[in-house]
Amino acid sequence: MRKRIFSAFLLAGILWTSTALAGDGIVFVDLQEVFKRFYKTQLAQDQLRQQSADIKVELESMQEEVKSLKEEIDVLRADSRDETLSEEVRDGKLSQLEEKLVALRQKERDVSDFEKLRMQQLDQQNKRMTRKIFDEIQSVVNDFAREKGYEAVIDRSAQSRSGTPVVLFARSAEDITGDVLAVLNEGREEQTQGENGPEKQ
User: pLDDT digits over 66-75, tens only?
Assistant: First the structure.
């Protein structure tokens, strides 16, 4: 699941800041790198991982109930066939067995429905968070490009449907990946160092 977390973002194409393309005004940005190193992406991933862990705990608890029911069913099935018990007792065990089988089927449906629902909710949240982060990155890219007077910003990490790079060749051109990250993570590095001490080189 983690491999799918934020995969939709990697399909982002070219970000245009104007309709004209002039040689000196074209710059590049690596959106995969920006997305990966944006602190809000890391926070979102941590949140999704925690929610995934919580879902796992809930599922394990429900599966334990299923396991317990199956064990009770095995005992009741054996007792209902035990000739050393009276017919009345065996009939009572058989009646309990039927009730437990119904309860087991319902519990198994509950587990399946719960897992499906929670995975759908997690996937939808992932998509919403990815879209929100992407929109913020795009806004920063657009503002930065307008401020610098660039004609266009091209994502050098973009890929076509066949999986090949969109940018096959480009002469030496400015890359603003670091500049965009500096804006997005402004003040964050200092805060992290203040909490954990200076980073070791």
Answer: 999 999 999 9
The token duo for 177 is: 């990946």
> Residue 181, SS3?
helix
* pLDDT at res. 165: 83
d(CA 46, CA 33): 18
Q: In angstroms, rounded to a whole number, what is the distance separating the alpha carbons of residues 73 and 65?
A: 12
- Which of the residues in the chain have pLDDT under 50? 1-23, 190-194, 196-201
Angle, to 10 degrees, between the axis of helix 177-184 and the axis of helix 87-148?
110
How far lies 149's CA from each of 21, 152, 186, in Å? Answer: 12, 9, 22
CA 166 to chain centre: 25
What does the pLDDT read at residue 24?
Answer: 59
Amino acid letter, residue 57: V
